[in-house]
């Protein structure tokens, strides 16, 4: 009997795993440069956390959660996203009682029972940031900038940044009613009518042409923001302009999760087909209070590693170092094989990635393995070399070979690799 990765999941194996690591590293580098601390939370949580945190009217909660009962009768759910768990951890550990804002980053898999297609999986990985206890629009701008900068640092040029404000507890209810009144006058199917009653803004996001055609005159949230939201949004926009971030005002941008207020944004890519969002986020003032913490503001994002890699591919970018090694040791003879073990130890301790062959491979096969490892240098070590306390250092790029005293070897390689 043979097995395959479960439907909607995939393995990350070499050589692709090198790209995976490099993209994950590049996305998390920006928050680390901006003083965000690392957090890690469990991959499953009490089901109630997501029902309250993500929102009962979202597809994520109603259709996509992996929920199960454990042997102790608790209802648990594999996390469908990162924000709820991270906020739970901030509240549980009282991080908000220290210096504010709390700024953290995380990376890890999320699970959603979706119909799999390119760019949409049942397990996907996000690099995310969350901040708690900051109302300053400069923080919104920092979060948006970090996401945009992460994509820029990978060399991606086909991305667009969509920006919107969803208003707040003060101004959204009136807008919601206005939109509902408008939607009630349209010719919509029963499902969409129901959605209009529960979460009317999601209807604006409907992809069907017959629905979109009727929405041309729909009222837009940005025309109905209260003074404070308008001011906040203006400031976020002007910070982004100062930062040189190009964004598109997108008053119909609605995110799939319920917790957003004010700033919302998405980074989309033209080369990915239907699943075009590489990442998104926004402000979620009040969410912490919903899950039992104090009533503090927050803003964050989640960037999809899987889709970012698809975008990197679509643009034909080479990201990551495909080489496994800096140095590859080729022992010829029994004494050389023995010496190789300690030589590798010393090379690795000096921070040089080093490997060798096993099982007494001949010179030809070993040199092929050296090439395949991506190493810049091969060290050919014969029994006679050992007697003379030297090793043949071969630069695999230029083909140049020099005899180097074994005692000076590590220093010589460190010097020539610049490590
Ligand atoms: P989200 O928009 O649901 O937001 O997901 C963020 C990103 O994760 C998406 O833009 C996409 O790249 C990736 N993603 C989501 N679902 C899938 C999937 N099924 N397959 C592949 N990739 C996927 C959130 O999850 C929020 N927690 C983001 C956030 C953090 N907002 C504030 N803080």
Task: Please describe what this structure looks like.
This protein has helices at 16-33, 47-54, 59-63, 83-92, 137-153, 172-184, 190-198, 200-204, 209-214, 227-242, 287-290, 305-314, 334-349, 363-373, 383-387, 409-417, and strands at residues 37-38, 44-46, 66-69, 75-78, 102-111, 123-132, 159-165, 248-249, 261-269, 277-283, 298-304, 327-332, 354-356, 377-382, 390-395, 401-405. It is an alpha+beta fold and 419 residues long. The protein folds into two domains: 16-171 and 225-314, BirA Bifunctional Protein, domain 2 (2-Layer Sandwich), CATH 3.30.930.10; 327-417, Rossmann fold (3-Layer(aba) Sandwich), CATH 3.40.50.800. It has an eight-stranded mixed β-sheet with strand order 1-5-6-11-10-9-7-8, with helices on both faces. The model has no long low-confidence stretch (mean pLDDT 94).
Task: Kindly list the characteristics that best describe this protein.
419 residues, BirA Bifunctional Protein, domain 2, 8-stranded mixed β-sheet, 5-stranded mixed β-sheet, 16 helices, 16 strands, elongated, binds histidyl-adenosine monophosphate
**Main sheet overview:** 8 strands, mixed
Which class of the largest domain in CATH terms?
A: Alpha Beta
The CATH superfamily name of the largest domain is Bira Bifunctional Protein, Domain 2
In percent, how helical is the residue content? Answer: 25-40%
Q: Main sheet: which strands, in order across?
A: 1-5-6-11-10-9-7-8
Number of strand elements: 16
State the end-to-end distance.
Answer: 48 Å
Number of helices: 16
What fraction of residues sit in β-strands?
Answer: 15-25%
**What name does the CATH topology of the largest domain carry?**
BirA Bifunctional Protein, domain 2
Work out the count of structural domains.
2
Uncertain spans: none
Structural class assignment: alpha+beta
CATH architecture of the largest domain: 2-Layer Sandwich
């Amino acid at each position: 009997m043979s097995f395959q990765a479960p439907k909607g999941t995939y393995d990350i194996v070499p050589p692709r795993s090198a790209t995976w690591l490099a993209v994950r590293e590049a996305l998390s580098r920006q928050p680390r440069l901006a003083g965000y601390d690392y957090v890690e939370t469990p991959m499953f949580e009490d089901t109630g956390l997501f029902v309250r945190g993500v929102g009962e009217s979202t597809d994520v909660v109603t259709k996509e959660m992996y929920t199960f009962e454990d042997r102790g009768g608790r209802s648990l759910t594999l996390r469908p996203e990162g924000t709820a768990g991270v906020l739970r951890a901030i509240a549980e550990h009282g991080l908000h009682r220290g210096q504010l804002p709390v700024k953290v980053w995380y990376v890890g898999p999320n699970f959603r029972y979706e119909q799999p297609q390119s760019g949409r999986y049942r397990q996907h990985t996000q690099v995310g940031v969350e901040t708690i206890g900051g109302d300053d629009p400069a923080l919104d701008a920092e979060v948006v900038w970090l996401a945009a900068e992460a994509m820029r640092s990978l060399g991606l040029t086909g991305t667009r940044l969509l920006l919107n404000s969803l208003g707040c507890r003060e101004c959204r209810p009136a807008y919601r009613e206005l939109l509902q009144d408008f939607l009630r006058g349209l010719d919509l199917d029963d499902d969409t009518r129901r959605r209009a009653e529960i979460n009317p803004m999601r209807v604006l996001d409907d992809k069907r042409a017959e629905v979109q055609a009727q929405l041309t005159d729909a009222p837009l949230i940005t025309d109905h923001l209260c003074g404070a939201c308008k001011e906040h949004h203006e400031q976020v926009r002007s910070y982004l302009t100062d930062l040189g971030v190009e964004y598109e005002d997108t008053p119909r941008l609605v995110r799939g999760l319920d917790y957003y207020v004010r700033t919302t944004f998405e980074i989309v890519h033209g080369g990915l087909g239907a699943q075009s969002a590489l990442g998104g986020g926004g402000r979620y003032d009040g969410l912490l209070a919903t899950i039992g913490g104090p009533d503090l503001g927050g803003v964050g994002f989640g960037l999809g590693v899987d889709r970012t890699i698809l975008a990197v591919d679509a643009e034909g970018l080479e990201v990551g170092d495909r080489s496994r090694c800096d140095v590859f040791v080729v022992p010829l003879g029994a004494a050389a094989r023995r010496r190789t073990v300690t030589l590798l130890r010393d090379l690795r301790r000096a921070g040089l990635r080093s490997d060798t062959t096993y099982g007494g491979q001949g010179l030809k096969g070993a040199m092929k393995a050296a090439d395949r490892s991506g190493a810049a240098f091969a060290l050919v070590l014969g029994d006679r070399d050992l007697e003379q306390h030297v090793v043949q250092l071969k630069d695999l790029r230029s083909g140049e070979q020099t005899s180097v005293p074994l005692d000076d070897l590590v220093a010589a390689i460190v010097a020539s690799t610049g490590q």
